[in-house]
Amino acid sequence: MELPSATERNLKKTFEFCANYSKNYFNTECCALIGLKGKSQYHVQIVANRSPEPMSFFTIDPVDYLNFASQYKVLFIFHSHPHTESSFSDLDKENSEAVCVPFLMYSVQDNKFALYIPENHDLDVNILNKAKGLI
Ligand SMILES: [Zn+2]
After folding, report:
1. What is the fold of 5-134?
2. Cα of 8 to ligand 1 centre, how many Å?
3. Counting CB atoms within 10 angstroms of each CB, which of 6, 68, 119, 124 has the fewest?
4. Where are the domains of the chain?
5. What is the pTM of this model?
6. Cα angle at 112 between 89 and 79, to 5 degrees?
7. pLDDT score for 2
8. Measured between alpha carbons, how far apart are the two ends of the chain, in Å?
9. How far, in Å, from the CA of 135 to the mean position of ligand 1?
10. Are 86 and 47 spatial neighbours (Cβ–Cβ below 8 Å)?
């Protein structure tokens, strides 16, 4: 099944896309990849949560990740917290550090985003500041 995706000129719209999807599918942690398309467009792709416990954890299929990364420069890995607050779990932080990609998270419960920036990453500082301004 083809999962929803969108291309936007505006980073805020990709964040809103993730939040709206998460509000509609609040029985599971939703996952998405956000990337740069060309120089000035953002692409967001919802991906399946492969965790055996998708209410409380998320797992992205490496094939989905590689497919996306072959077409777009990966900016953020997104997941939702359907029924917990907008703070990152230790596991979230460890995973972000391990893959060196910032994690964007949206808590449906709090209606709030959070951003985790790992120690090592190659995200453009302007995009990072834009994202911080949206949190
Ligand atoms: Zn989490």
Report:
1. Cytidine Deaminase; domain 2 (3.40.140)
2. 25
3. 119
4. 5-134
5. 0.96
6. 50
7. 84
8. 31
9. 16
10. no
